[in-house]
Amino acid sequence: MWTSDGQTDLVIMVLEKRGTGYEGTLADTLGLIPAGTETRDAVRTGDELAFTFRIPLEGGMVIRVSLSMQGGAMKGRWVDVKGGNSGPVELTRSIR
Predict the structure, then answer these.
(1) CA–CA separation, 35 vs 87, rounded Å?
(2) Which of 22, 84, 85, 96 could cross-link 42 (Cys pair, CB 3.0–4.6 Å)?
(3) Which residues are CB-neighbours of 48 under 8 A, at least 6 positions away?
């Protein structure tokens, strides 16, 4: 993920299929996402994946990520659902 101030933040995401949806956890290299942060509302539809997660910045930011398959990677954007910040995302490992 690229932050709104231009930094690169490597995010590790582990998703597991649970029934009709997915559950996952996140962690990152900048320390913005506490290790083990859970994803919410993770849905995969065809070549698209969307999910939310919460980070403790600014009293609690809810981030929405939307990705779609482009070439060999999933690319998209993250957005602070309160509308404050956004940035690009590229998932470089495939979903299994």
Answers:
(1) 21
(2) 22
(3) 66, 67, 68, 69
pLDDT tens, residue by residue, 46-96: 889 899 999 887 778 899 999 998 887 888 988 988 877 787 788 776 555
Give me the sign of the Cα torsion angle 87, 32, 10, 67: negative
pTM above 0.85, yes or no: no
Strand boundaries in the chain, DSSP class E: 11-18, 21-28, 37-38, 40-45, 48-55, 61-70, 73-80, 86-91
Domain range annotation of the chain: 11-91
